[in-house]
Design brief:
By secondary structure, this protein is α+β, with helices and mostly antiparallel strands. The protein has seven helices and 16 strands. The strands form four sheets. Strands 1, 2, 4, 5, 7, 10 and 12 form a seven-stranded antiparallel sheet that branches. A five-stranded antiparallel sheet has the order 3-6-11-8-9, with no helix packed on it. Helix 1 packs antiparallel against helix 4 and helix 5 packs antiparallel against helix 7. It is elongated.
Length: about 425
Amino acid sequence: MRAAQLLWLWALLRTTRVAGALVNRTIDDQFGDTSTGFVPSYSPLDKWARGDLCTGCNIHPGTVNVSQTHDQTWHDSTYHPGNPDHTITFGFNGTAVYVYHLLADGTFNGTTTFTNLTFFIDGQYVGQFVRTPDNASDIILYNVLVFNQTNLSHQPHSFKTVTNGPTDALILFDYAMYTTEDDPATSSASSDRTSSTSATSTISAVHTAASRVASTTPVGAIVGGAVGGVAVLAAVGVLLLCIRRKRAMRPPSIAERVEPFTMHGGERALENTPSRRLSHPPRLPDLRLGRGRLMPGAGSSTTGSSSAGSSRHLFTPHRPRLPPLPPQSVSGRTDRSRANAELVQRIQTLEAQMRALETQQQPGSSGSSRGTSSNPSSNSSGSRGRSRNRSAPRSGLRTELATLRNEIAELRGELEHDQQLLAEVDVLPPSYNT
């Protein structure tokens, strides 16, 4: 599957024609457009001079670093009030245009260095650049962007710079730049011409060496076979890498078995579980009714004293549900298994407590008969004591039994839920870390 996709992509790249890309083209003040050869026009023509050749100008190659100008040229003109507008005009086909001038600070032997430029695109006013120079020293500034306009429609445009007004102004135009789309047809035509020339040479070679051509393996077949072989090998390598990574990230199987808990003589023990072992088996208490508590009363009667109050244990009817197991987590699975073992232990303990309460609830149990007297003379008072001792505890025992049954049912539901999560984790695919 991957190899087929790679081959399809390679074929698509070979057959897709590249669309025109945006490129910048330059219009030099002297040599014009590098693509079309169009040269800017200057008006009035007798008011303009080529700065790099003007020896009578106050700003000349002796005062200008020619190497910092574009193509080592610039056009120079000085406007005086009453003159016709001094203009620079050129055309371009693009979506953006940028105009660069030289600027002068100082006086340069009395020459004005004030700049006043107004710009028009397709006859519409688009901006103005006005600058008052610093006359402290004679300095030339190079590659100064005096105007730019973007987001134009991609079509032929005319650009015009105008200098006029009541003040003398200096113009030092260096170059302009515009953004356009490179025509793919030009590259295609050039490629076709190259291919045609190559084909002509090949045909000539075939006619002069037919026997050698007949025995020569086609270059296209060799290149195609090599590319296809590389693509197949790359696909196989990627597939093997994915399989290896999947196996490496798969957690080892952990066989954990919860051994049953055995109850002997009121004691419980946890055997062969992966969780912590108890230092000594906990003792199952002799239960009797308390206010929301189970209180051990070993060695005391049902009407016994409060001597066992110091060893009371709070009865918690609700146990919070454990958080879900994260997928493919070995440590999380081990903790969940330990938690399940604790749930089993808790359920068995509660069942033992419930059986003890059921035994106390049965008529004629030892707890209910302890209040009787062997002295016949105390039968009347003993009957009244047994009546009170049987009625009050039995209602409490029923409540306690109902609470224990509810908790056992809730714990069993939680145990089944956790076991289902563990079963789902065994079949989940491995997760990949990016």
